[in-house]
Amino acid sequence: MSDLFEVPLVVRGRVIDDFSETFKGRSGSVGFKTADANKYIDEITLSRPSHMADLYSISLEDIIEYLAELGPRLALDENTHMQQAFELSRSTSGLSDSILRYAYETIPGSFEREQTRRIAENLVGAAYLEGWVTIREGVKVRAFGSRAVHIIAGNVPLVGVATIIRNAITRSDAVIKTPSNDPLTAVAIAQTMIEMAPDHPLSRHVTVAYWKGGDEQFEQQFYQPRNIEKIVAWGGFNSIKHISAYLQPGIDLITLDPKQSSTIIGQEAFDSPQIMARVAEKAAMDVGVFNQEGCVNARVIYLVCGTDEAGLDRARQFATMLFDAIQKLPDSLSTPHKHFDPALKDEVDALRFVEDEYTVIGGRGNEGAVIVSHDSEAVDFARDLACRVANVVPIEHVDTAIRSVNAYTQTIGIYPDALKDAIKDQLAYHGGQRMVSLGGATNPPADAPQDGIEPLRRMCKWIVDDTQ
C-alpha cells in the first residue's frame, strides 16, 4: 500500500485526477494527495443560480428512485471506490476496522425508498418540494433548493451519506468540504453517482473537494453570497468561530456543532439484580457503540440510587455491570480504542489516588473505564470523556440530573420510559434536544429534527407567491 492515498476532486459530474497537493492526515495519520482547490475555484463555485433549473425537471419520485438505485451500488464488497475509502479510513479514523466495516456495510440501506420518502415528508413536506402550496387564499409557498457548502465531520462515514441524501431531497447544489480524517467517502459516493448517471441533475450538482481549513486565499473568494447561500457546518468551537468570520448578508449558517449526551436512570433499575443487569446492558450501548465517537454517545450517567453508603454500593455494582457489558459489545459496534487519548488516560489514572472521592473500574489499558463519583457531581473533565470512558454519578433525586442539562446537551437516554414521559418537558426547557429510551441513543431517526433544529427546512429557501 502506498503511504499516500490519492483523493480525486469531483466537480459537478466530472472527476479530476489532479494529485498535485499533499496534505497530512489528522493526528499524524497517513497523508493523502489531492488537487489544489484554488486552481479550480471557478469550477467549484456555481455563480449562476439559474443553472439549478435542471433540478426542477425531475420529480420528487424521480429523486427517490435515483437514490434507491444508488444505494446498492455502494456495497462495500462490490464498489472499488468505497473499498479505497474504507482502506484510507482505516488509517485516518478513530474507529477500529471492525466498526468501520460495519458502518460502511450499512451505507446502502440509508438510500432505501421508504426512508428517503419519510425524510422528505417529515422534514420538509413533499408538497412544498413538488410545487406551490396554497396556505391561504392568495398566498402560496414553495421550498426551493439552495447553493450550499457542507463542512462535514469525519467521526463516522455516515455524515457524508446524510449530506448527499439531504442535498438531493432539497434539490440543492452541494459543495462538500471533506475532513482530513475521512477525505474519501463522499468522493467515492460522488464517483459512483457519476458512473451510474453522469448526465442526471443530481449527479451534476454534487462537488466534493478538500482544502485545508483556514486557507484564506481560497475561502475569501469562495465564501461570498454570489457563490453560496448556505453554510452547513459540522464542527467544533474553533471551526464554527472561524467560519463565522465569513458571514455576511446573503449567507445563512446552519451549525451542527458537537454536543454532549447523557443518561438518567431511575430508581426502578434497582428493583432486582436481573433488571439492573438489563439496564446496564442498555446503558452500555449508549456509551460504547462507535467507541463513543458520536455526539449521541452517553458520557455522564446519573443514577437515582441515593448518595449514602448503600447508594454508593449500588452505584459501584451498577458501574461494574456497565463496564462488563461494554466489554461484551460485538466487535462490529465497539472495541478497545485504537488511539486512546493519553491526556484522558492521565485523568483517569489520577483519580485512583483519591479513592475516597472516586472509584475507577477498568482503564488499565485501552479497554475503557467507568468512573463512579462519590458525590452528586460529574468529574471536572466530563466534556472530554471518550474512548468508552463513562462517569456514573449517584443522585438522590432526578432533579439533580435535570439541572445538569444545558444548551450543549443533545441526547438523553432515560430509564424507564415512564420517567422519560414525566421529565421530557423539563429537560427541553433546560436545553435537551432528544429524549430517548435507554439503549437507543446511537440510533437517531433520520426523519426527525437534529440538534434542536430542522436542518432540511433550513437548507431550503422558502419562497412566497402573494396575490392581492
Note the topology:
Blueprint lengths: L4 E2 L2 E3 L2 E3 L4 E3 L8 E3 L6 H4 L15 H14 L6 H13 L4 H10 L6 H11 L2 H5 L2 E4 L2 E6 L2 E5 L6 H12 L3 E5 L7 H12 L9 E4 L6 H7 L7 E4 L3 H8 L7 E4 L4 E6 L7 H16 L9 E7 L4 H19 L14 H10 L6 E5 L6 E5 L15 E7 L2 H6 L5 E7 L1 H14 L3 E4 L17 H5 L1 E6 L2
Parallel strand pairs: 1-5, 8-9, 8-11, 9-10, 11-12, 13-14, 13-18, 14-17, 16-17, 18-19
Antiparallel strand pairs: 2-3, 2-10, 4-5, 6-7, 7-20, 15-16
Structure description:
The chain is α/β, with parallel strands linked by helices and 468 residues long. It has two domains: 5-257 and 451-466, Aldehyde Dehydrogenase, Chain A, domain 1 (3-Layer(aba) Sandwich); 260-437, 3-Layer(aba) Sandwich (Aldehyde Dehydrogenase, Chain A, domain 2). The protein has 16 helices and 20 strands. A seven-stranded mixed β-sheet has the order 3-2-10-9-8-11-12, sandwiched between helices. Strand 2 and strand 3 form a beta hairpin. Helix 3 (80-92) packs antiparallel against helix 4 (97-106), helix 3 (80-92) runs antiparallel to helix 8 (185-196) and helix 11 packs across helix 12 (309-327). The termini are far apart.
Summarize the model shown.
With 468 residues, the protein is of the alpha/beta class.
Search tags:
468 residues, alpha/beta, Aldehyde Dehydrogenase, Chain A, domain 1, Aldehyde Dehydrogenase, Chain A, domain 2, 2 domains, seven-stranded mixed sheet, 16 helices, 20 strands, globular
CATH topology of the largest domain: Aldehyde Dehydrogenase, Chain A, domain 1
Give the CATH architecture of the largest domain.
Answer: 3-Layer(aba) Sandwich
Helix content: 25-40%
Whole-number total of structural domains: 2
* Structural class assignment: alpha/beta
**Strand content of the residues, in percent?**
15-25%
Report, as a whole number of angstroms, the end-to-end distance: 67 Å
* Low-pLDDT residue intervals, each spanning 5 or more residues: none
Radius of gyration: 23 Å
CATH class of the largest domain: Alpha Beta
Count of runs of 4 or more consecutive helical residues? 16
CATH superfamily of the largest domain: Aldehyde Dehydrogenase, Chain A, domain 1
* Biggest beta sheet attributes: 7 strands, mixed
User: What is the averaged pLDDT score?
Assistant: 94
The 3D shape can be described as globular
Total strands = 20
Biggest sheet strand order reads: 3-2-10-9-8-11-12
